[in-house]
Amino acid sequence: MSAAEHILISDSTLRDGNHAVNHQLGREQLRAYATAADAAGVPVLEVGHGNGLGASSLQVGIAALGDREMLETVRACLTRARLGVFILPGWGTTRELLLAIDCGADLVRVGAHCTEADLTERQFGFLRERGVEAHGCLLMSHMASPARLAEECARMEGYGAQAVGIMDSAGNYLPDDVTERIAAIRAAVSVPVLFHGHNNLSMAVANSVAAARAGARILDACARGFGAGAGNTQLEVLVPVLERLGWRTGIDLYPLLDAADLAERELIREVPAIGSVSIVSGLAGVFSGFRAKVAAIAARERVDPRDIFFELGRRQAVAGQEDLIVDVALELRAAAGAAAG
Amino acid sequence: MTPPERAAVADSPRHGRLKVALLGAGYIGTDLLIKIRRSPWLNCTVVAGRNLAGDGLRQARAMGFAVTDGGIDALVNDRRDHYQLVFDATNALAHQTHWDLLRPLGKRVIDLTPSRAGFMVVPTVNGEDAPAHPNVNLISCGGQASIPILHALSRHFRGIRYIELVTTASSPSVGRATRLNLDEYVQTTESAIQAFTGVAQVKSLVNISPAQPPANFRVALSLLVDGVDPAAVTAVVTRAAAVVRSYAPGYRLCACTVLGGDRVFVTVEVQGRGDLLPTYAGNLDIINDAAVTVAEQHARARAALAIPAREMA
Fold this sequence. Notes:
The structure holds two protein chains of two kinds. Helix content of chain A is about 45%, strand content about 15%. Chain A is built from 13 helices and eight strands. The N and C termini of chain A lie far apart (about 65 Å). Chain B is an alpha/beta fold. Chain B is built from ten helices and twelve strands. The relative contact order of chain B is 0.16. In chain B, helix 6 packs parallel to helix 8. The interface of A and B includes residues 95, 116 and 317 of A.
């Protein structure tokens, strides 16, 4: 590693954090955190419904605010930071991309599940034509091999992605898993590589450091780890850890800690902790965002939420397939009834 | 219960089968070809694609069909009236061009792309209206799987405020054209649901599942409905599903619940016949079974007209 190499921190507190409060972040909360993070020198703030542009729905939760309202509110608070949005083709369309560009989005993160990068081709083309910076990321990446992830990332680079990488959507990775995958991707592309961690197995910061050591130059994190279930990589821990290891982030420590305190006070209902069910969802490799829904349906159908998570893992459910939870719960209940009868 | 097979050979045509052309040899086109071959009413005289070395045209040729890599031009330049009807299994953007070229030739078109150009048809809902329209659009696989139930619910319950459809197809069952047409897929499916139900607030979402082995094609429907009786919902949904099974035997209701007094939640899985791809690819079957049903309806209507004409002669 050369001395004082830069790592770009993308703060997803106001996007992925929304999962933890059923997408109910309000205008004042967005304003307060965006102002604090901007003051701390956080370079990118990702904002929106947890599942991205256009995703507000009964399937994953109706957001308190519309996409336009969220983006315009945060845009007005930023003096230095760039405004980021997330979009998953199939959930958001070019209609929503136009809206985001109109609201002043600087950076678009286009996502696709691990093996489905070709779903992003159209949206990258659209963004390239409009000169908007766009990064590609693979969700639920633990479901594919390092070689396959590298191939899919190279495909997105070919479509025009200016950075590519992976999300550990289920919080399933251990540091060696990350090292292997980031190294494979690095060898396959020439654009910067990104990593997004979750903390189900208490590995989010360690995994992010492993990613940086393997050459990732964009890391996602959230204040207090604000995110579904066990939460995300904790921003105000990751930044000083990276600095101590010799990387530069351009973020000031005290204002960053102040922003995190503000997030805990103003945004967060329950500071993320690694609960028993979150450990199971991480082991099972299921998207953390399923947690609240699984808990509610498990209680209603009187089945063990851990059994639901393991069964969802066996079926390889991906984020967005929340409708499977009811089917799985009904089948588990029927099976339990049959065993008892 | 063993679902009934589609229209048996018993009522096969007496005046020669309807000559059809297939445009596009991706997953949908190639699977459709296998279904056309089984139909007693349809005779595919040419398969027009782009690449003779590609999987689609190679399989079509192996099945004994005449193939061309000339695409739409080959169909337009056909001077020997080889076909009366074209199945367009290309992509939404290309369809408008194809229709502009085929319309002046007096050809009928059944469009399997989410183009929104033609008259939208769901066989169990408005199939009988299809023969009156020269360009019939089949919306999308998600539309074909959901609209029979949504239409039935909208007829029975007046207070539907919102409809949401989540379609999940397995990765190996989704070809390149569909992947590039995802935006059209979403928007056309939403328009179709609005048109068939009269409900203005509609959302359509699509998942492509990377699971291995692949999972069955499925749709999940969530509705917000005022004044809903759970028993009536189950009865309406079960009846609608049974009607779809008359031409798509793998159509199966998985869950049907009413939560909180106003939220209806229904999930459906569709198993295919395992023609081109294994049975998980019910997305191919639900739209292709609809395409064959609509084309056969036209062939029947034409045969019915032809009989009195001959008797008079």
